[in-house]
Amino acid sequence: MTFNYTVKTQKNIDAVVAEITSNLSEIKFGVLGTLDFKEIFAKKGIDYPNEYKLLEVCNPQAAKQALDSDPNIGLLLPCTIAVYENNGEKFISLAKPTELLSVTSNVELKEMGKEIESKLIDVIENSK
C-alpha cells in the first residue's frame, strides 16, 4: 500500500489551494499554513522550476483528541496536502493518515485516521 493518495488536476495551483481551503472549512478543518517551496528555495538562491505548495491541514478537535491519547502523536500532525507541478502536469497529494498512524498500536487513533482520511480524500476529489 502506498503512503499517499494522489490525483491529477487541470486547474491552476493557486485555484486548487483556494478551493481545498474552502472545502476544508465546510468540514471544520483549516489550513494552519502553506509552505511554498518554490518561494522558499528562491529565497535561499536555489532554483526550483515547479510550483509546490504544501498545506498543513488540521481539525482542532481531532488533534486534541489525538494528543490527549498520546502526546507523541503530535510528531505526525498536522495532516499534509501537497499541490504541485511535475513534468508539466499538476497534482494534489495527501499523506494518508492511516499510513502515518500505522506506526501506533492505538486502535482508537487508527479509526480516527480512517475517518479523517476519508474526509480529506473527498475534499481532494471535490477540488480537482
Topology:
Elements lengths: L3 E6 L3 H13 L4 E7 H7 L8 E7 L1 H10 L9 E8 L2 E7 L1 H4 L6 H21 L1
Antiparallel strand pairs: 1-5, 2-3, 3-4, 4-5
Helix pairs in contact: 1-5
Write structural notes for this entry.
Helices cover 43% and strands 27% of the residues. It has one domain: TATA-Binding Protein. Helix 1 (13-25) crosses helix 5. The two termini are 23 Å apart. It is an alpha+beta fold and 128 residues long.
Tags for this model:
alpha+beta, 5-stranded antiparallel sheet, 5 helices, TATA-Binding Protein, 128 residues, globular
CATH fold name, please?
TATA-Binding Protein
Radius of gyration, whole Å: 15 Å
Q: Describe the main β-sheet briefly.
A: 5 strands, antiparallel
Q: Structural class of the helix and strand makeup?
A: alpha+beta
* Oligomer description: single chain
**Net shape:** globular
Portion in beta strands: 25-35%
Give, in order, the helices and strands: EHEHEHEEHH
Q: What is the total number of structural domains?
A: 1
CATH class: Alpha Beta
Number of helices: 5
Share in helix = 40-55%
Please sum up the structure shown.
The protein has 128 residues and is of the alpha+beta class. Helices cover 43% and strands 27% of the residues. It has five helices and five strands; from the N terminus they run E-H-E-H-E-H-E-E-H-H.
